[in-house]
Amino acid sequence: MKNCPICKTGKIISTEDIITDLDGYFFVVKGTRCDKCGEEFIDEQEGQKMITIAKRMGLWGQQLKLHRKLSKSARGTVLRIPIDIEKELHLKGNEDVAISKVGRKIVIEIE
Ligand SMILES: [Zn+2]
Fold first, then answer.
1. What distance in angstroms lies between residue 15's CA and the mean position of ligand 1's atoms?
2. Which one of 36, 38, 72, 109 is CB 3.0 to 4.6 Å from 98, fit for a cystine?
């Protein structure tokens, strides 16, 4: 067992429940944690795995935020879905969607 490089006195123990936040998505990864100060160290391999998963989910190296203006129609407020998202999700334009509000965010789920 080696000592913690942060507090110098704690013991480094292995753990499988490090929670890490990547762009609002939470990943549970393996690594080590100091039993004294609680500092967590993610295994390098695990970190790589997380990046691989993030890439597969399209969360990595991609601009997630697209800016669009809302427009008004006679029936209410209209949001046009950007063409690249439309392509990526293979939208035909007749899908049912569920719209929910999370704080100041609007989440659109394709059902
Ligand atoms: Zn420590």
1. 14
2. 109
